[in-house]
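User: Fold this; tokens only.

Assistant: Input:
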Amino acid sequence: MRLAVIGCGHLGATQAACLAEIGHEVLGVDIDATRISLLSTGRAWFHEPGLDDLLTRKIRAGRLRFTTSFQEAASFAAVHMLSVSTPSLPDDDGYDLTHVFSAAAALAGHVTRPSLLIGRSTVPPGTAAQLANKLNKITQPQAPVEVAWNPEFLRRGNAIHDALKPDRIVAGVPSARAEATIREIYRPLTRAGVPIVITDPVTAELAKGAANAFLAAKLSLINAMSDVCDATGADVTELASAVGLDGRIGSGYLTAGLGYGGGCLPKDVRGLAAFARAARAKSAATLLTAVDEANTHRRQEVVNRVVAAAGPLPGKRIAMWGAAFKAGTDDIRDSPGLDVADRLSRLGAEIVVYDPVATANAIGAFPHLGFADSALAAAHEAHVVLIGTAWPEFAAINPAAAAAAVHDRLLIDACQAIRPRLWEAAGWTVA
């Protein structure tokens, strides 16, 4: 099947490559000519493991190409996947749908045959209906556009796996014809056993936000339990293991740490809370707001832990290992580690940051912090080593080698990245 993917950010570029991988002929579309030029060479403009290789293979096979032309997209395919960003509004927690409506309208102006637009972006309930209404005021009567919604569930750092072996496919469809088209798109995956949930567009629109809200609540809860463990002397890692063995709960997202960050969970929790307030779903709004507040509070708790362990911060050098919001990505949006580093800097500490892949992005966003090109270089003469991202590289560091670099052997692992007993055996205080 021929498919056009509108929007070539992390979601769109990964989706385009993976749709080509399962057998479709795909055209990626974006208004950013620089982005399209880079993708056309087989390289993504962001870090996602395995994506450059997949892009290169599919481009060479003739199944994938990229363009800035909406007219070309409308001519190429009658099925279009809309994968543009939906950031938070600048003065509100709700979703900014500007890119959704502008991209769809740009496409609709060139549509000359009946078409299906499949939304993949995270949006508030009712967006598909609004979009269908707007588009069919633009298109000709002989070229109607149906709008379905098929939310994505891709994780940064695991996006290719999540696209090719998803836990489920959710599609909200307006008609039997749209359902048949979506089933055909994903047939290679459903034949391999991936379950597909066919529902109405509003339910599908809610699916992504609801899933992220649940995960966020789970993370906030284990972090709250971590505070209880600190107060009582209990071991939060062993507690999480005990709780996670309950089949009703599971062990995923039960690692205590700095809390969640990135471009999805914070935005989706706040966006769903804003929608719930507007819809007068008071209980949902209250719960989601509490989850968000608990997550933000966790960052200050780590700052407090550093101050309690190291004393007054002016004149102290702190090595921050990790800048990405999680391991496996160069995404620093709403990075808990960088937020903590910034707070410590404002308290007078000298911060030196190292991250395996996200340093360039961090420098652009936090130019007042210091940066190093290795973990041990960041730790040189440091009074505190603070781990803010659980990169495997940090778990592999020799504690004795790190001890030779620092001023004080004080380590604060805010994300359970290392084995404390190994570091303590090397003379470190692990707070």
